[in-house]
């Protein structure tokens, strides 16, 4: 028996009429893609899994707002992006709180050493050729995802990865000097 292939709009209409099976089809169709996208932003498999689940929960909760005449995929990506950034913000707050609680006189020296090392690395990055400096700065200091950075620098993702790898090797040579 041939199964009818349904559009995203048809699946959403059926979900809105109460078909959880139709929503499950949407989840299965996009789950791997959304998880990979969240991983690009979060760089943590557990957090990207959380972001993926949260994305589909938000999708389900907001289905009535979806314009059936528009494609689902971009809307889903936007939800995933916002969810991933929410997770980053939430985690930064908890890291800051942990740091404040643990901060004491012994940690002050560690903080000073870390800051000096960070400044040393920044000075070394400035000495890199632009083709390596821009990817390194974007990825490590601006914390941009591969996708965002490749668009910003107008480079294919594989070229970006190569420049990051080579840039790190050049950076290591500069730091050894």
What would your notes on this structure say?
The chain is mainly α and about 180 residues long. The chain folds into 2 domains: about 100 residues, RNA polymerase sigma factor, region 2, helix turn helix motif (Rna Polymerase Sigma Factor, Chain: A), CATH 1.10.1740.10; about 80 residues, Orthogonal Bundle (Arc Repressor Mutant, subunit A).
Top keywords for this entry?
single chain, 177 residues, mainly alpha, Rna Polymerase Sigma Factor, Chain: A, Arc Repressor Mutant, subunit A, 2 domains, 8 helices, elongated
Q: Please give the domain count.
A: 2
The CATH architecture classification of the largest domain is Orthogonal Bundle
Q: Which class do the helix and strand fractions yield?
A: mainly alpha
Q: Describe the main β-sheet briefly.
A: none
**Class of the largest domain in CATH?**
Mainly Alpha
The number of E-state strands comes to 0
Low-confidence regions: 94-105
Beta-strand share of residues: under 5%
Number of helices: 8
Overall radius of gyration: 22 Å
CATH superfamily of the largest domain: RNA polymerase sigma factor, region 2, helix turn helix motif
Mean pLDDT: 83
